[in-house]
């Protein structure tokens, strides 16, 4: 197949797994979809192709807009989308970052084996669920006043280190060492801070989770060793973001853009792509606020990890240090960052928007932590709670093809509303336990139904395409043991 048509949009096959929507009708660049034919059929089922086409109307879009293999319809900008916008002559778009600023994942490894855990699954899942706040609304590991929230927004995980919720090694294994430069707490509204102050160290709801997993396969022994992964090892995967603070921050700036930059907004095919022109005061304010929310999310995941260490200590009767519960890596997948990229023959500073896409820098890149500089940045791609997840490393082709990015998960096939019609939470939970020995605990059956394995694309196929393209190389596969959700 050399062409693909869906919903009035035509794609041309550039090469295997690369499909292009040619530039036309006000597009400032082409759009590309990275997918196998099977995944492309699923991507075409909703408005993803329309949305990735719309993103090419954003001022300053560079080379092409990109939809990852896990792409699906989002708010304006598709989930699984990457857009690099010129930082001097382009714009920055809160809609292209998303409401959950720095939604991301972190994986903590342990020296426990699956054999050591078996028989204690129910005790562990119950203790994790009891001790790690989840669900809508308030409740966190710590509750903070305004001054503390400001410190967290400004300093990120360095605040957690100073207050006994982290060790130095945690910072060294986190994107940006857990602190974004340019964070400006004064640009985050009081309403956002009030929403966040009682949610520090909480999973929230929706697709956010904490999952205890076992490593089933290591495909690259050298990189696996560098990442500290081996078969039958127990690891912990945490997926959440900036909670109400990030949501409110996005909402605040979308409203401000509507008021102050209506001219630009009127030129865009979708108002949900609302953007502030680069160099404008509002663009600078949003960037400062977004970076602050990024710091908040890193602290949120750090505190959940800290509490998880304490739970494991109680369940297994050993210190977390004895169990070697160290952070493998933490990486964001809802973010816009100023990065230098080679475009043509020149280096350019770009706002690289990754919405439901993971940074995937290759070996040797100066922003890869020293621990992984020789092998490449770890990339963590969760599947559903009934399938495997993957650890990849940034691939050699990522900088050229995707501005150093790859997929962020399996990607949804079905809306939450449809999922609740198709599945019954109690049945899903029981089947996972009976058939796969996966123990799930959630605030409601509806949450389990919304996140049923059948709701998601085939994560194996998503990762295969990433590997084949050389944007994210497969290192290891994991499989769920225990899962808690909000």
From TrEMBL:
Keyword line: GTP-binding, Ligase, Manganese, Metal-binding, Nucleotide-binding
Q: Which InterPro entries match?
A: RtcB (IPR001233), RtcB-like_sf (IPR036025)
> Where do the catalytic residues lie?
408 (gmp-histidine intermediate)
Q: What are the TM regions of this chain, as residue ranges?
A: none
Q: How is the cofactor bound?
A: Binds 2 manganese ions per subunit.
Please give the biological process terms from Gene Ontology that the record holds. Answer: tRNA splicing, via endonucleolytic cleavage and ligation
Q: Which metal ions or organic cofactors does this protein require, according to UniProt?
A: Mn(2+)
Q: Where is this region: Disordered?
A: 178-200
Query: Where is Mn(2+) 1 bound in this sequence?
Result: 100, 208
* Taxonomic superkingdom: Archaea
Q: Which residues bind Mn(2+) 2?
A: 239, 333
- EC number(s) stated in the UniProt entry for this protein: 6.5.1.-
Single GO molecular-function term?
metal ion binding
* Catalytic reaction equation(s): a 3'-end 3'-phospho-ribonucleotide-RNA + a 5'-end dephospho-ribonucleoside-RNA + GTP = a ribonucleotidyl-ribonucleotide-RNA + GMP + diphosphate; a 3'-end 2',3'-cyclophospho-ribonucleotide-RNA + a 5'-end dephospho-ribonucleoside-RNA + GTP + H2O = a ribonucleotidyl-ribonucleotide-RNA + GMP + diphosphate + H(+)
In terms of Pfam families, this protein maps to: RtcB
Instruction: Write out the residues that bind GMP.
Output: 207-211, 333-334, 382-385, 389, 408-411, 485
What role does this protein play? Answer: Essential for tRNA splicing and maturation. Acts by directly joining spliced tRNA halves to mature-sized tRNAs. Joins RNA with 2',3'-cyclic-phosphate or 3'-phosphate ends to RNA with 5'-hydroxy ends.
Assembly mode: Monomer.
Give the UniProt family note.
Answer: Belongs to the RtcB family.
Give the protein name, as stated in the record: tRNA-splicing ligase RtcB
Q: Please tell me the species this chain comes from.
A: Natrinema halophilum
